[in-house]
Amino acid sequence: MDFRKIESGSLQLEPTHGDLVVFAQNVFDAFTHLAAERQMTYQFFSSKEKIWTSFDADKLEKILNNLLSNALKYTPEGGEVTLEITAEESNKGAPLHRSEPVAMIRVIDSGIGIPAEDVPHIFDPFYQARQANLYKQASSGIGLALTRELVKLHRGNITLQSQLDSGTIVTVELPLMQTDTQATQNVVFSAPENTNTDGTLAENQPKEKPSSEPTSQPLLLVVDDNPDIRHFILENFSDQYRIREAENGKIALKEAVHHVPAMVISDVLMPVMDGITFCKKLRANEQTSHVPVILLTASHSETNRLRALSVGADDYIHKPFNIFLLKARVQNLLEMRQQLRTRFSREVRLQPKDVTVSDVDEKFLQRLMDVVEASIDDSDFNVSVLCKKTGISRPQLYRKLQALTGQSVHEFIRTVRLKRAAQLLETGKLSIAEVAYRVGFNDPHYFSRCFKKQFGISPSKVSA
Predict the structure, then answer these.
(1) What per-residue confidence (pLDDT) applies to 99?
(2) CATH fold group of domain 2-184
């Protein structure tokens, strides 16, 4: 679709002022988990703490997403991938000979490299390097071609240097629009989902078994000491879910903390750590407290059922179970979670207790809200500040909020700002501009656009 728009001239740049460093870090973080799984050295560097400029957030996200995805895809386990951003006064060298300030974005990997004869054609549509084919990592040949066109839309340039079996450096040069950081809205951009709407940019997302499963599928953690039961569940769920397995609660707890599944199906009676203890520990852990849990048991005792529900299990199914009933329960719980995420992001007066199912989740959201509220009028308050004040790493915070609210950390901060704005507007005592400044927006017009996108109505109708 993007290519057709480019060919027809209908794909237009929609630039917005923002901090390029924050935006790039946000995209970079989405791949942290994948890099860790492959035991790679994954690094982010910036020559400046902030680089304010104008860019199209959606299109730049696709550019960075594709370059990082390719770098990870063609770098063996234990290798290195680096995203580097520098701001330069000018770049008078080839190919664009710019005298204006530029931002240089480099994605550097220690991967398989590209043969010299393939380099000149690597950005051609549908071109596939022979080296990638040899490593059985061939792609559609669309991603880099689209990336080049999106860079051109930014009046930029993209180049590639590569040495066979030594790695690749892709450099994106973008004109740097100078902005007044005091008068420019601190734009809050969304981090990408684990998969992209454009299939060409999602080729290197984490895969569980079976390896052919698309990564947009929810991750299901199956815990049972009986391998036949695990295999039976895998066979029946693998068409709709990614599957990870564990033979007892101790192993499963490590899996859950590391991978944060969308759903857990666990046996109750297991060696080392039983299902009741496992569920209790999941609920007590801030990273996994939101994950729905279905417990399976051969016992029909009401006492055991009460124990399971008391430690936070969402459902309790007796063995032998009907597989269709189990699939329906899983689907219903996931749909309920999605409804809660939608409610959180849309309703003006929604409080944490309305969207969570455990005290741990409620306290977690309330703690984040309190930190944001304390600095709500500070337009420089961002993800880094929130992580520092809460003591939570950026990747952990991102995964938790995505699972609990369906939002990135940036979106969460913006949602809290906008909800407070709605309350202030309803009092009728402040103008729209005054409210915007009080909740950390430096541009009332941008505030109005964000408000309407969040709630479906303009702020003028709320304050009327």
Answers:
(1) 61
(2) Heat Shock Protein 90 (3.30.565)
